[in-house]
Amino acid sequence: MAVLRVVPNLTHLKVDAYYINCDGYRWKRIIDDYLPKLKVFRLRMHIQFPGKKNNEQHVDQLVDSFRTQFWLEKHQRFIRCCHKSEKDYMSIILYSLPYAFDDFVLSTLNMAYKSTCPQNNDYYSYTEVNNLRYEHFLASNYISFTQFFNIRNISIDLRLDQTLWRNAPIFYQLMSITIFSTDAAAQFHLQSLLDRSPCLNSLIISS
């Protein structure tokens, strides 16, 4: 982050970072020390905690580092943290709200969510997302198609729960569908998606 030390007039900052160790306390110091004119801060971090011990505690500590007066009261900036236990590590995606990036991977299998928002359902509209990868849908999960109104391209695992389509919108912007996994009910799900995609002009089947 050394480059941020030499741009004191910066007013807008958008960071998409992989595998850096930078929690809310460190970001506060960077902003306070080097970015006095910053008005807009958009963040997405992909993080891995190795091993299995105390990973849930590490996630709580990471989220709590953005739950301070600096973030919640002074700047009214909130984050959401999506985390999932893999075989040898904890996989985490932490992003600022409202979500400000044009791509999103929705992998709901064994995924858990934490947020600093006052209410759990705050900022659940992902209007900036144009490219969506949709994996492992579980009906009990609370992020679904209903939050994505402007997607243009979707890559989708068709091993889905049929309840997914109850509240699914019409995807007027959707131009391209890529299918990368199917099961016995794939025809039903594909037809349901096609029925909601009036402007579709590209279909890719990848097995």
Characterise this structure.
With 207 residues, the protein is an alpha/beta fold. It folds into 2 domains: 10-98, 2-Layer Sandwich (Translation Initiation Factor IF3); 125-207. 18% of the residues lie in helices and 31% in strands. The chain is built from 4 helices and 10 strands, in the order βαβααβββββββαβ. It has helices spanning 24-34, 55-64, 69-74, 186-195, and strands spanning 12-18, 40-50, 78-85, 89-97, 103-107, 112-115, 131-135, 153-157, 176-181, 202-205. A 5-stranded mixed β-sheet has the order 1-2-4-3-6, with helices on one face. Strands 5-7-8-9-10 form a 5-stranded parallel β-sheet, with no helix packed on it. The longest helix has 11 residues, at 24-34. It starts with 11 loop residues before the first strand and ends with a strand. The mean pLDDT is 86.
